[in-house]
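seq:
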Amino acid sequence: MTDESEGKSKQVGWISLSKAAAMLGVHSMTLRRWSDNGKFPSYRTPGGHRRFALNDIEAYLDRNQVTPAETLPAAWADQALIQTRQQVANHRDHRWLQMVDEGDMRNDYRQLGHQLIGLLLQYVAADEPNGALLEEAKRFGRLYGAYGKRSGMTLSSIIEATLFFRDILVESSLQIPSNTYVEPGTSLRILRRVNQIINTVQLAVTEFYEFSGP
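struct:
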């Protein structure tokens, strides 16, 4: 590469194969194949390493409306909130929903639900499972138990409610690949993290009902 092109590369901003693949949310093998096929521009260093221009990556993301891997948890949370509203609107006949569909109690559940989504978002985005967040999930479970008791819900009704929301969260994680270029393992990680949090919440709800008396 000439001195002039070297100067341009510094201005544009060139990054490695692995970093470019992470930004695009694809496996490095996929990006290597795209480069070989001419689908994605790159250049080789004197040592034979591939380099990709940041502006090419940004243009590709904009052109294909792809969600970068770094924003995937937020994209999942948005999808989950949309589906929650839709499913609640379509299932007004659920017994447990009718029991909480009144004034302050409904607002309490809505606020707690938004906080739980926020907790899930943190847990999904974390590099490693976070014990402190699981402890917070237990606190949410106890709150759900207290709200359930206050609204006259049986344990089976409140477990039915948590299963209802688990299904929505799971479906949201499975639908992410349809509009986002991500590795298959990413969706699996989200699914596992969602299950960990919901399992923790359900166990805490059950314990609350068992030890709080009639």
